[in-house]
TrEMBL record:
Provenance organism: Paractinoplanes globisporus
GO molecular function, one term: ligase activity
UniProt keyword list: GTP-binding, Ligase, Manganese, Metal-binding, Nucleotide-binding, RNA repair
Descriptive protein name: 3'-phosphate/5'-hydroxy nucleic acid ligase
Keyword Nucleotide-binding attached: yes
Reactions the enzyme catalyzes: a 3'-end 3'-phospho-ribonucleotide-RNA + a 5'-end dephospho-ribonucleoside-RNA + GTP = a ribonucleotidyl-ribonucleotide-RNA + GMP + diphosphate
Enzyme Commission number(s) of this protein: 6.5.1.8
Length: 347
DNA sequence: ATGTAC
């Protein structure tokens, strides 16, 4: 008999469709436990913001962006002026070399230059070399077409069923997870070079779309980061804070934490309501003074901060359930989503 | 989120 537990306070709104999806997943053959994170929202077939254990491996529970995650790199810059730096960001839609390495992708992916605005755990922040005013590069991206091909190869034969040869799937999966981390590092290096900035080793790099195996149990994470004694960057929105946390989630939470603020509106709703509520200019130049590089107007509305839950609520829920302890918060200076001038791009 | 079809 499987169980479902949602880690959100009663005042945190969770779309009922996402909770329904947790129960649908829990009813699958071999399922053990579904843990919903406070950023839980509906996904395609499976919930996003969930960690799910079972005795069999379900590739669709990880989804197509295998190895998607968030990395944080320390970066050194003399005078970070958002508009000037925004103009110097490289074209991260253009790959480095033959495949799509070094590219950010679309959707909620981004590369952000951010500044530590508050230290919340002084000893832990000091260990990471972070203090108020420290600059970091936050990279949220995944395995691009590679992970998509791996899931499609499985789905074409087995649909949403389990992997009959989990070892073979895991080999491809693990490669995509490594590729995702390399992709994030590659982008950080591209940006640092373009800005003439010094880049340090990653302080944090955790995938939130992956499956791990131990003692006969597959732990699938979809929009949920490893929370077993690791540091995790939990992303806010393009115009609000993000939080670096020390995660210490136990078995009830499937050793996992949230990965971001979580959508509160579908992309279609965000586009429709956003167009009535915001101008393109106010989404590009945010209330916190940051600049958003995004030549795709539709994406700008879909990803508007108002389409997401409040990150402080998500962090509050994690803290209240003792899944994580906040270390520092960051405020964006420049967020790169996609090239500033899509018309100038060659096809 | 993605590549691809419309």
């Amino acid at each position: 008999m499987s169980s479902v537990r949602i880690f959100a306070s009663p005042s945190s709104w969770i779309e009922s469709g996402a909770v329904d999806q947790c129960h649908q997943v829990a009813a699958l053959d071999g399922m053990l436990h579904v843990a919903g994170m406070p950023d839980l929202h509906p996904g395609k077939g499976a919930p996003i913001g969930a960690a799910m254990t079972s005795t069999v491996l379900y590739p669709f529970l990880v989804g197509s962006d295998i190895g998607c995650g968030i990395a944080v790199f320390p970066i050194g810059l003399k005078r970070p002026v958002p508009e000037k730096l925004a103009a110097r960001f490289p074209d991260l839609d253009e790959p480095v070399g033959a495949d799509s390495l070094g590219t950010v992708g679309r959707g909620n992916h981004f590369v952000e230059l951010a500044r530590v605005d508050a230290v919340l755990d002084a000893a832990h922040a000091a260990r990471l070399g972070l203090s108020t005013g420290s600059l970091v590069l936050i990279v949220h991206s995944g395995s691009r077409g590679l992970g998509e091909r791996i899931l499609r190869r499985h789905t074409e034969v087995h649909g949403a069923g389990p992997a009959p040869d989990p070892v073979s799937y895991l080999q491809d999966h693990d490669h995509a997870v490594r590729w995702g981390a390399l992709n994030r590092r590659t982008m950080a290096e591209r940006v640092a070079r373009a800005l003439g900035a010094e880049l340090g080793d990653a302080l944090v790099d955790e995938s939130h779309n992956l499956v791990t195996y131990a003692d006969g149990v597959y732990l699938h994470r979809k929009g949920a980061a490893r929370g077993d004694g690791r540091d995790v960057l939990i992303a806010g929105t393009r115009g609000t804070r993000s939080f670096l946390v020390a995660a210490h989630a136990g078995p009830e939470a499937n050793h996992s934490v949230a990965h971001g603020a979580g959508r509160k509106m579908s992309r279609a709703d965000a586009l429709r309501r956003g167009k009535a509520k915001h101008t393109v200019d106010e989404l590009r130049r945010t209330p916190v003074g940051s600049y958003v590089v995004c030549g795709d107007r539709q994406l700008l509305f879909e990803e508007a901060p108002t389409a997401y839950k409040r990150i402080e609520q998500v962090i509050g829920d994690l803290t209240a359930h003792e899944l994580a302890t906040p270390v520092v918060s960051t405020l964006p200076l420049v967020t790169y989503k996609t090239a500033a001038h899509p018309a100038a791009r060659r096809r």
